[in-house]
């Protein structure tokens, strides 16, 4: 492919995203964490819908998902299912998190943890370890972005230069407009991805089958390669147990940027309305998955499965669509990396450095913005350029840890008796198991390492909580006035309210 | 019992919790095993059709949930 148009279209997208990000500030002062961190809690339902949807639909949708369809088959749909479950999670927890933030002034997940357990140390620990997973995720997305620029430019923009271009754009508008930039650019990126995915998918289907009937494609698969239509998939590695535990672990991984996005809503009701319709966005996966299935017969000898959509587009689609695919994939990776970069900067300043050095709120707000630069220049850019082979491992461990923070949330939303030491013990026990079963003995019995971690984590959390001092009653009462506005029902009884004072006695 | 848990406090709340749990169970083993066949429905693989049933069922449950939560004025 020698046309310059795909690169022009892709760079045109970058320019538009940059302009939207810069204009998102709209005269607001960005000198407080309320503004820079959570956009003054001002986002309406449509922006929030696209913000969360685009943030969760990463480059995976345009590269990984078609690649999985190409290599494994329908097993890829576990992603669509767990994303729908994440909407259920957002529907229930999002409004409560928003109220915590609005009433107690939280702007990060770690702030909420520190406040609930009256432990800045626990908050800092959660912030730092969550940052490992967040950075690994941002690096992977940045590599995806640079790869798109490399392909669209026919190799003229090397990976290192692509990394710098993408990070520089994100840095400028994140510094200037903060969470407002993420909201507006994600809204644009989310709409773009939806259009591009369907345009590319339908065009590819038409070029491959001579029509828009997916049935012909799947009928051929059914006749010639039925293993692509069932679990454990063509690769034989997506067993029922791995499918199930992957969904459960992913569902309970409360990633910090998502928590922050919930707090950006203009009201609790806004979150509920956005979450309700969120699963409908994930129809975006279907057309891109179809491209992967088409590739099974059109591109049978691909070395890298995750390039199937790009390779097919460059071989069979008009340059306009190739450019749009480049722009859509870049949008997907940028919209996923920028919330994580923002979140790491925000939580490092607020939950690690502020309590450590007793910084003022005003200085912490400045620091959070400036931290973007060293995080991008000294951590994300070098890692993205070096493309370390262990990065996926770091990400898996990081995400495994994210699910191990579950006890902190159980104590925040369901169980007043949870103690600081119980949470810490559960997290440490679960993390050790997750690391061991991710690195040394990978996913024993075909069960996700994070799930094994939870199997130890939760009993340890409960046992240690019951034998260690509970958190101060007034703090617990403050949280559970929101988490349980109608009081408590006790196990085995119905509609029964309990006195909060009784909940915190040992 | 001195250490209560947060559980639904009304029939509607329990109904909603059960609907949430049913949605989740529908997407994992053993239920998913019932749809693990190389069959086509409406021209799509059965597992993909079932995935979309789950996705839209989640939307339906949340729509009902909105009516319950907003109907009694409880945020």
TrEMBL record, chain A:
Key words of the record = Cell membrane, Ion transport, Membrane, Sodium, Sodium transport, Symport, Transmembrane, Transmembrane helix, Transport
Entry's InterPro entries? Answer: Na/Glc_symporter_sf, Na/solute_symporter, Sodium:Solute_Symporter
CDD domains hit by this protein: SLC5sbd
Q: Where in the cell does this protein reside?
A: Cell membrane
Organism the protein comes from: Halomonas dongshanensis
Which is one Pfam family of this protein? SSF
So which domain of life are we looking at? Bacteria
Q: How does it sit in the membrane?
A: Multi-pass membrane protein
Which protein family is named in the record?
Answer: Belongs to the sodium:solute symporter (SSF) (TC 2.A.21) family.
Which protein, by its recorded name, is this? Answer: Sodium:solute symporter family protein
So what does this thing catalyse? Answer: L-proline(in) + Na(+)(in) = L-proline(out) + Na(+)(out)
Q: What is the lineage of its organism?
A: Bacteria, Pseudomonadati, Pseudomonadota, Gammaproteobacteria, Oceanospirillales
- The transmembrane residues are 6-27, 48-69, 75-94, 121-140, 146-175, 187-205, 240-259, 280-300, 312-332, 367-385, 391-414, 421-441, 447-471
Automatic annotation (TrEMBL), chain B:
The domain of life is Bacteria
Instruction: Give the UniProt keywords, A-Z.
Output: Membrane, Transmembrane, Transmembrane helix
**Keyword Transmembrane appears in the UniProt entry:** yes
Q: What is this protein called?
A: DUF3311 domain-containing protein
Q: Which residues cross the membrane?
A: 12-32, 38-64
């Amino acid at each position: 492919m020698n046309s310059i148009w795909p690169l022009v279209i892709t760079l045109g997208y970058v320019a538009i995203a940059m302009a939207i990000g810069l204009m998102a500030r709209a005269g607001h002062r960005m000198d407080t964490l309320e503004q820079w961190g959570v956009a003054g809690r001002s986002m309406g339902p449509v922006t929030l819908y696209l913000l969360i949807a685009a943030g969760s639909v990463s480059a995976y949708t345009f590269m990984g998902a078609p690649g999985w369809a190409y290599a494994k088959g329908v097993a890829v749909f576990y992603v669509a299912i767990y994303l729908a479950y994440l909407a259920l999670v957002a529907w229930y927890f999002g409004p409560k998190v928003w109220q915590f933030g609005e009433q107690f002034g939280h702007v990060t997940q770690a702030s909420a943890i520190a406040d609930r357990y009256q432990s800045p140390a626990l908050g800092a620990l959660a912030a730092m370890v969550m940052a490992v997973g967040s950075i690994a995720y941002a690096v992977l997305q940045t590599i995806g972005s640079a790869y798109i620029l490399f392909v669209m430019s026919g190799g003229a923009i090397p990976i290192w230069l692509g990394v710098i271009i993408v990070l520089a754009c994100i840095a400028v508008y994140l510094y200037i407009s903060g969470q407002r930039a993420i909201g507006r650019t994600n809204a644009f990126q989310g709409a773009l991805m939806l259009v591009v995915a369907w345009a590319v998918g339908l065009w590819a289907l038409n070029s491959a089958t001579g029509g828009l009937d997916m049935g012909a494609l799947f009928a051929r698969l059914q006749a010639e390669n039925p293993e692509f239509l069932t679990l454990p998939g063509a690769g034989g590695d997506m067993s029922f147990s791995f499918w199930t535990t992957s969904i459960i672990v992913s569902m309970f991984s409360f990633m910090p940027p998502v928590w922050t996005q919930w707090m950006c809503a203009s009201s609790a009701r806004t979150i509920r309305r956005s979450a309700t319709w969120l699963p409908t966005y994930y129809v975006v996966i279907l057309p891109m998955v179809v491209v992967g299935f088409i590739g099974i017969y059109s591109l049978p000898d691909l070395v890298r499965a995750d390039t199937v959509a790009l390779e097919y587009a460059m071989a069979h689609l008009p340059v306009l669509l190739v450019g749009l695919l480049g722009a859509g994939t870049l949008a997907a990776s940028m919209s996923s990396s920028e919330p994580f970069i923002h979140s790491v900067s925000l939580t490092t300043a607020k939950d690690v450095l502020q309590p450590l050095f007793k910084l003022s709120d005003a200085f912490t707000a400045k620091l959070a913005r400036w931290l973007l630069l060293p995080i991008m220049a000294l951590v994300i850019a070098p890692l993205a350029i070096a493309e370390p082979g262990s990065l996926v491992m770091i990400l898996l461990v990081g995400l495994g840890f994210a699910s191990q923070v579950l006890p902190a949330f159980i104590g925040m939303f369901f169980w007043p008796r949870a103690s600081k030491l119980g949470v810490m013990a559960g997290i440490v026990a679960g993390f050790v198991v997750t690391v061991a079963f991710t690195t040394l003995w990978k996913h024993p019995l075909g069960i996700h390492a994070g799930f094994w971690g939870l199997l130890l984590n939760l009993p340890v959390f409960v046992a240690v909580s019951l034998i260690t001092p509970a958190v101060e009653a007034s703090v617990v009462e403050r949280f559970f006035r929101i988490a349980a506005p109608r009081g408590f029902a006790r196990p085995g009884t119905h509609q029964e309210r309990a006195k909060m004072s009784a909940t915190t006695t040992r | 019992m001195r250490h209560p848990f947060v559980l639904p406090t009304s029939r509607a709340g329990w109904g909603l919790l059960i609907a949430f749990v049913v949605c989740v169970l529908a997407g994992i083993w053993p239920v998913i095993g019932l749809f693990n066949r190389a069959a086509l429905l409406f021209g799509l693989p059965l597992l993909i059709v079932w995935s979309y049933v789950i996705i839209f069922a989640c939307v339906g449950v949340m729509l009902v949930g909105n009516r319950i939560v907003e109907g009694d004025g409880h945020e």
